Structures are given as structure tokens and as C-alpha cells.
Amino acid sequence: MFLDEIGDLPMAIQVKLLRVLQEREVVRLGSRKSIPIDVRVLAATNVQLEKAINAGHFREDLYYRLDVVSLELSPLRERPGDILPLTRHFVDAYSRRLGYGSITISKEAELKLRSYSWPGNIRELENVIHHTLLICRNGVIERDDLRLSNMRIERQDDCHTSVDDSPETLLDRAFQKLFAEQAGALHEKVEDALLRAAYRFCHYNQVHTAALLGLSRNVTRTRLIKIGELAVNKRRVMENVQGERVMQLSI
């Protein structure tokens, strides 16, 4: 059984899938009787599931059920040797489906296929070949038959971003701007801003926020109270804040 884009499944479907994987049974629509199954599950996604878990968008227990053997595939643009074999595979598959005879690919068309960066990867290649077979003539795919839109070509340029746009560089730029504009207590301001941003990113979940920042839940809760993100008893707030200060001084 192949599950494509597993990272985009709604939470309700994730619960059902987890139950199927655990119990190895399914119930047909309209039936009450469970049916045992024996299947091998292959799941694919372009989502970073660890981040999705921290954000509360993907179930951690389902992740560990699926993460038995992981294979990371490079983008198609980094595997130019796979482009023409995949092209011929899709040509054969769609030719049979459309009832066509033998289809050949011109050298110019092959060159265009190899030189394109394929930002949409294999799915884009499949769609391009399907469209091309509908418009090509005399059983030959020519260069002009291949529809590679301008929008995709613009995305191709985006793939060649420089190292200057790395997360570390972007953070450095932000810090440089902050240093130039503000002064005093910057360490505390940055910590508070980071905690607020992480808390919102994790949809106000304390456990996920703590995991994302590498902190304990108690420390995360104390700091969230201190910056006013959690509303609790005022006396309790003062005790937590005072306790944190004492711990910092002892260190």
C-alpha cells in the first residue's frame, strides 16, 4: 500500500491510519465487520515530519509507526541520469493507456528534458509527458512539444539560491539590524521574542514549544508566565520568577 504526501493527512485520518497499522484490520464502508489485512506500507512526503510534530500537525505515534526504514530521495535535478529513463517509462505507460503505437523522442527533446531543473520533480515530469503525448504528431516527441511553463522556469532560478540566504546568514542580518537600532537588555529581549515566536509556531502547546527549543517543560512554563503568555495566579507567578532568579544566581 502506497501513501503519497503522508505529511498532509488531516488529524482525523491520521488517527484512523494509526488504528489500521496497530490492529491490522479494516472495516469496509457500510459494514460493521472487521477484515484482517497483511500489507506493506510505503509512505512518501515532502514535509519535514519532525517539524510537523513540533507544530502539532502530525501525530508522533504515527510517525514512529511509519519510520521503520527511511529513504531520502534527492530532487530530480540532482539525478540527471534518471530523467530519460523515467521519461521513457511514462511515455510507455501513457502510450498504452491512450492506445498509441510506438513513440520516439527526438535528440533535441531529450536535451531539453535533461537541461531543465524539474522543480516539481517526478510528478511534474509525468504531467509534462502526459500532455506531450496528447499533442505530438507522427509518433515523435519534438522539442517544441514539451510544455515547460515560464512560472516553473522562474522557480528553477529559485533553486540556485546562494549561501548568503542560509538561515544562519538571515539570522546574522537580523541581529546586525537589532544591534544598530536598540541597546540595553538585548539578550533578554531576544530570548523573550524567541519564546513567543516558538509558542505561537507550536499553536500555544507548551510541550511542543519545550521540545522545539530544547528546554524542559517546567522552564518553558516559567518563562511563558514571566513574559505574560500564560495567565495564572499572581502569587504563583512571583514564586516561579523568584525561583528562576535564585537558580540563575546559584549557577
Strand content: 5-15%
Principal-axis shape:
flat
Indicate the percent of residues in helices: 55-70%
CATH topology of the largest domain: Arc Repressor Mutant, subunit A
Mean pLDDT: 81
CATH architecture level-2 label of the largest domain: Orthogonal Bundle
Q: CATH homologous superfamily of the largest domain?
A: Homeodomain-like
The strands making up the biggest β-sheet line up spatially as 1-4
Q: Biggest sheet, in brief? A: 2 strands, parallel
The total tally of domains equals 3
Tell me the name of the CATH class of the largest domain: Mainly Alpha
Rg, Cα atoms, Å: 27 Å
Explained architecture:
This protein has 251 residues and is mainly alpha-helical. It is built from twelve helices and six strands. The strands form three sheets. Strands 1-4 form a two-stranded parallel sheet. The chain has a two-stranded antiparallel sheet with strand order 2-3. A hairpin with a 6-residue loop joins strand 2 (25-27) and strand 3 (34-36). The N and C termini lie far apart (54 Å). Mean pLDDT is 81; it is low at 152-163, 233-237 and 244-251.
Give the structure's gist in a few sentences.
This protein is mainly alpha-helical and 251 residues long. Helix content is 56%, strand content 6%.
Q: Which properties best describe this structure?
A:
251 residues, Helicase, Ruva Protein, domain 3, 6 strands, mainly alpha, 12 helices, Rossmann fold, 3 domains, Arc Repressor Mutant, subunit A, two-stranded antiparallel sheet, 56% helix, flat, two-stranded parallel ribbon
